[in-house]
Amino acid sequence: MVGLCAGFQALWLCSCSSDKVPVAPKPTDTPTFSPTFTRTSTPTKTFTFTRTGTLTPSATPTRTPTGTLTPSATPSLPRPSHVLIVIDENHGYDQILGSGAASAPYINSLASGGAVLTHYDAIVSGSLPNYLAIFSGSTQGLTSSDCPADLGTTSNLGAELLAKGFTFIGYSEGLPSAGSTVCTGGAVDAKGNPIYARKHNPWVDWQVGGNIPAADNQPFTAFPDPSGTDFSSLPAVSFVIPDLWDQMHDGPVSIGDQWLQANLGHYITWCQDASHNSLFILTFDEDEGSEGEHIPTIFYGAMVCPGQYGETVNHYNLCRTLTDMYGLSAMNNAVTATSITDVFACYTPVPTPIP
Questions:
Q1: How far is it, in rounded angstroms, from Cα 122 to Cα 104?
Q2: In order along the chain (355 residues), what is the average pLDDT of each group of 10 residues?
Q3: CA distances, 40 to each of 22, 43, 45, 208, 234 (Å)
Q4: In 10 A of CB 31, how many CB atoms?
Q5: Are 289 and 90 in contact (CB under 8 A)?
Q6: How far apart are the C-alpha atoms of 168 and 160, rounded to whole Å?
């Protein structure tokens, strides 16, 4: 199982996995509750986990654990009602979560209260192939971001979700209109580039003559009110792609960090309520060669066990995790990848109330 190394000695040095370092948990809504989790398999280890405080949308989250989180013997994947994935651009792990942390205080607050994959890598150098790897488990044989890249009816996450009766929408900031297939568009940013780039929007490559409806390719203006408190209208799986300036491709890290908090901070806070059964994932396409394609990736929400997880994973593992969450067929190179399960090992689903 991913994230567990041999030898129980490691369990006494890590919280949930071999490389996991306990971090401060985020506050959740009052009243205070103190569930107790007990691992019944040998060896037996009992711990408590206490959450206190009051949620304020977009506030910097913290968590304070008591005791030790121990992964279950066979952690399984939840099936979120909503999972939202944000893909930022061209920065390595150290640039965001290490020496560059001061430029990204909000992202680092999520790292402190979420699950950080400390050895997560991009597949190749270049934007489009990495986006395709997340969305289809394959770079589709592409080595560049040339536009257009129409891929017909080959397997992809969006089409698999729709075929199984789930919902999917990709939201791209700066997309000129719903269903647009333009290669670039929108206003021009401070570096003189159009703010929208199709190479960062993988689902459109299955739209023309393919299996993704134009209605599922939406501008970010169609996203539910970012300042709201109810995100239950979101699809089962959604991606949000900020524009080139706001996703750190052209703009500084501080701008991307501020954009994330201002535009998705309320959803991220909403994920802290276990009754919403929702998940937030932040990753990057690549590091542009700065750190050997070592990129920051964070899972965040009430279903996540906070800490650092040191297994070696990449975009194919993320693709496999998403397909397994919804009982879909694994595709392409993700077939041989393993799901990222250990970040959910301490989570117990909240029973659905009987009407």
A1: 20
A2: 35 35 41 42 40 41 39 69 98 98 98 98 97 98 95 98 98 98 95 97 97 98 94 98 98 98 98 97 96 98 97 98 97 98 84 45
A3: 22, 8, 8, 52, 37
A4: 5
A5: no
A6: 10
SS3 state of residue 334: helix
Structure-token pair, residue 77 = 């994947």
CA atoms of 117 and 36, how far apart (whole Å): 26
Q: Which two tokens stand for residue 312?
A: 């070696």
Q: CA-to-CA distance for 109 and 264, rounded, in angstroms?
A: 14
Amino acid at 126: G
Domains and CATH numbers, the chain: 79-344 (3.40.720.10)
pTM: 0.79
Structure tokens at 236: 């089962």
Count Cα atoms within 13 angstroms, Cβ side, for 341: 16
Q: CB neighbours of 315 closer than 8 A, spacing ≥ 6?
A: 122, 123, 130, 133, 134, 283
